[in-house]
Known about the structure:
Blueprint: H1 2-16, H2 18-37, H3 39-44, H4 46-67, H5 75-94, H6 100-125, H7 133-151, H8 157-186, H9 190-197
Amino acid sequence: MxxxxxxxxxxxxxxxxxxxxxxxxxxxxxxxxLTFARPAAMFAALVLVFGAYALVDGVLSVIAALRGARxxxxxWALLVGGIAGxxxxxxxxxxxxxxxxVLLYVIACWAVVTxxxxxxAAVRLREQISREWLLGLSGGLSIVFGGLIMIAPAAGAMAVxxxxxxxxxxxxxxxxxxxxxxxxxGNRPPAHTVRRAA
Length: 198
């Protein structure tokens, strides 16, 4: 029973903080919708919008990691991803005159790192929640997005903005679905969950 509870700890932590994933998803959806509605204006504001998104996403990840740091060894991946998001967001605000090419590489690296960490978390959770593939899918989308930017950095500004919007929308939908799935998993009766984990 203790062994089953130890295996269940990461899921319990994520279920308790389901709102952080859902909020990250909502922010991604909002960014995606705004990008498709006003693509020309979004390119002008891309540095600040991306900076704000990465900063908030990083802060929420750090909060979720620190709340789950007690007794759980998998919190570090969420913490590292959160710190990377905070540094990326602050960099966008401190150096707003970065060229589009440099910004694209920053976005690409951030997406690849975030995606790799999400896939790592999904692999660790595969025995504790069903449909953990949603988190892995979000990570895969991040890596593909970062790779596409690295391969074709000179693509037109409008195409890049629309790609960012598509990524933010898809990733947001996946994270929101996962957040509500974790909320439902956290509401299951303890006896059923412990029996399943054992």
